[in-house]
Design a protein that fits this description.
2 copies of one chain form a homodimer. With about 450 residues, chain A is of the alpha+beta class. Helices cover about 35% and strands about 20% of the residues of chain A. In chain A, strands 1, 2, 3, 6, 7, 8, 15, 16 and 17 form a 9-stranded mixed sheet that branches. A 4-stranded antiparallel sheet of chain A has the order 11-13-9-14, covered by helices on one side. A 3-stranded antiparallel sheet of chain A has the order 4-5-18. In chain A, a hairpin with a 6-residue loop joins β1 and β2. The longest helix of chain A is centred in the first third of the chain and has 20 residues.
């Protein structure tokens, strides 16, 4: 296909910019430098910045203080391509088959960010002043947790000052379905350890007279939910903002059925909190989930020990307006109140992340919905994602700006997996989406 | 010490007869052959027998069908001596310090069986006919589960026909305290696996809508007991024979305090079924114990997965007149009835062992109590052990004879540990005990 836009994306995709593998350090730098040159060639001011980790690239259009400023965020680092033998074509030799570009990073996130870059470049090439100022921030550590991003934003706060942020790193509700993700769940993590006897005991000699730490851990886990599946921690739902009618309607209107979720999860039946649909349960309701538990003998067969200790790793997924620290406080009180005599309960609080919510009925929300509808020709789906995207809360905290999460990846793009791909039509739609969002936000002025 | 009886025991202890280590196969055979020669030199008929595993030694006195027959069981195999660096003197070079013989096997079980052998040899050397026929059975696989013993007994049933069995392989309630162990708990083992999604899921993307197998496993474990510590499986206690007054009195009279049990277990506080003392809970009451459980992420920190499966390994300790197969049936019904939709419960029944009980008020029970009192000069303690000794139920099943468990080991003899030892006074008491029990049982005739 003789299209310079595709050649640009292919060049970008050929860099094996695997942030987690130190042997690719030089590829990371080369990729960042290449991006900077690409930005400059399209008419942006651009530079590569040190971050304490892999470099970040910033590019800007000429600033007009009378116009709103949009920060467009993306990342040029990619997941490791392994297992290589499962790829039909090599991960760093982009190949088009059946209208899709196959390459590591094509859908996460090089395809989308390059669509935004080329879309904006197109506008710049038409001369004149854009209706909004653009700042591109393309980082190299998203796949390894963006550990340096917060500090980098603090350091460059003035330079990155903006009104709103646009990110295309989420998935569409269904193929070809324009999607605004307007909420993400927050998280609060906690591990508890139940300490009993000083060593594993013979369960014949001592069983019956000594409190079993595994039994206690199991009882504590069981106490987290009531019989019907609600979280049973006192006060857990206190700060949950009830679902609004339009939110429930939007959830019901999503082109995702319960059997789609069953198929994706590999289960025959769903479960969960009564009074809510599965879509609401994963996006709009908080949870208490055991991520791991253990204690005592783990091998084959039987070993008649009364284990000396047991543990559970819990995460709570949170929704507006819950506060992770408050949830950890409530959970800790709940557990401590239920720990029986004869064992010692140790509670280790883990990481926290605030839930995220941007009102689709806000001016920026509405502008993004108009842009999505113009490009895809249908009313956008309003999604709540059950997972967390920590950078979004980092942006809110440091730059005090909302993020518009405009999906460009399809559900079958295989992010993080072999044969990752990005439909050509999504790539071209992404360029148009960039132009539409720039116009719509520019028009708000 | 210039005593031929101690020299005999020392010779016996010098064989590194470690049944679980194949490099000691030749030592096992040499030890069995040595035993046979020792028996013959003392006036027994004796031979070494193949068993399918390590050989067994049988020795007999001349049979008089007018007299009762006592089978005395012991084992010549020992635990591995490692860690060697923790021994004050080498494990297979017996050494006397402070009135104790230090060597691997001294208290488990060479010291005791040699005391019985030499005690009986003494009687034989006095000429005449013993008041009871004696059969010694000394096997070489006790420390590795006595897997071949059942078959061996079946095969030699006629030859091993006896009225009662004497075993000195249990522990005294306190040092110098004559002890009859009259009951052992049985066991029923079961593993359950809770199967959920086909793979670990992202707990953000799916959490709240998919049943978590670790949560289910924890709830099932928690359901095994009521709030106060009773086993909550319907019908679990149906067949439990209530404790008799004399049994409760015997338990209360044991020279063991709750703080002794705390110290041994390494806990600050005991726990368990209401209405029973700790001694009763471990010896006379059945339990449901988690020996191991697991599911999901086991490493450091947090991994936000909703695990695909979880497991628990359970053992039930049983008392007269519970039946392990019936308990497994009840437990299985209990678990299946409580498994929620959305997961699949797999139940794997494990090994079973009947509880054991020999009435101390039976003729043989009383005879053994008289023998113990004669030798130690005080009223014997009546103990129930919480663990299981499978050979005892094997003897009952194949030879239809009760086992009298007459303790000779002290609580601080360190069986299975470095610096295993056996007090000289217990060794000499063991010889006298053999003679006393032979007389007491002979007198029953």
């Amino acid at each position: 296909m003789n299209d310079s836009r595709i050649s640009d994306l292919f060049e970008f995709l050929r860099f094996p910019s695997v942030s987690t593998q130190s042997e690719h350090m030089v590829d990371m730098i080369a990729c960042a430098e290449w991006l900077k040159r690409k930005f400059i060639s399209l008419g942006f001011q651009s530079d590569v910045y040190q971050t304490g980790g892999h470099p970040a690239v910033i590019a800007k259009t000429r600033h007009d203080s009378a116009r709103p400023t949009i920060l467009i965020y993306g990342h040029y680092d990619v997941q490791p391509p392994e297992p290589l033998e499962e790829w039909t074509s090599p991960p760093f030799e982009p190949t088009i088959r059946d209208g899709r570009i196959y390459a590591r990073g094509s859908t996460d996130n090089k395809g989308q960010i390059m669509a935004h870059i080329l879309g904006a470049g197109d506008l710049l090439s038409q001369g004149g002043v854009l209706p909004a100022n653009l700042i591109f921030l393309v980082e190299g550590e998203e796949e390894i947790g963006s550990d340096n991003l917060g500090g980098f934003l603090e350091q460059h706060r003035a330079e990155l000052d903006c009104d709103v942020i646009v990110i295309s790193d989420t998935g569409m509700a269904a193929p070809g379905y324009p999607t605004l993700t307007f909420s993400l769940r927050g998280i609060a993590a906690l591990q508890f350890n139940v300490h009993g006897p000083t060593q594993d005991l013979h369960s014949g000699v001592f069983g019956g007279a000594v409190m079993n730490p595994a039994t206690v851990a199991a009882r504590l886990i069981a106490s987290l939910h009531d019989e019907e599946g609600r979280v049973a921690i006192d006060g857990f739902y206190n700060d949950v903002r009830p679902l609004l009618d339009w939110e429930r309607e939007a959830a019901a209107a999503l082109p995702i059925t319960e059997s789609d979720i069953c198929a994706l999860a590999g289960v025959k039946e769903l479960a969960g909190e009564p009074g809510f649909t599965a879509i609401e349960r994963v996006g709009a309701r908080p949870t208490a989930e055991v991520n791991g538990m253990g204690g005592g003998y783990q091998g084959e067969g039987t070993k008649t020990v009364l284990p000396r200790e047991a543990f559970a790793k819990l995460t709570f997924r949170l929704v507006p307006n819950q506060h992770p620290e408050e949830i950890l406080r409530l959970a800790e009180a709940h557990l401590l109140a239920r720990c029986p005599k004869g064992v010692r309960l140790e509670i280790l609080p883990g990481h926290c992340g605030e839930p995220y919510y941007v009102d689709p009925n806000s001016v920026y929300g509405k502008a993004s919905l108009r842009a999505l509808e113009r490009v895809f020709g249908r009313r956008p789906a309003l999604m709540r994602e059950g997972g967390s995207i920590p950078i979004v809360t980092t942006f809110k905290k440091v730059l005090n700006a909302d993020s518009l999460l405009l999906a460009l990846a399809a559900p079958d793009c295989r992010a993080h997996s072999p044969n990752e791909n990005f439909p050509l039509e999504n790539f071209f739609a992404g360029m148009r989406l960039n132009q539409a969002i720039v116009e719509e936000i520019g028009r708000l002025n």
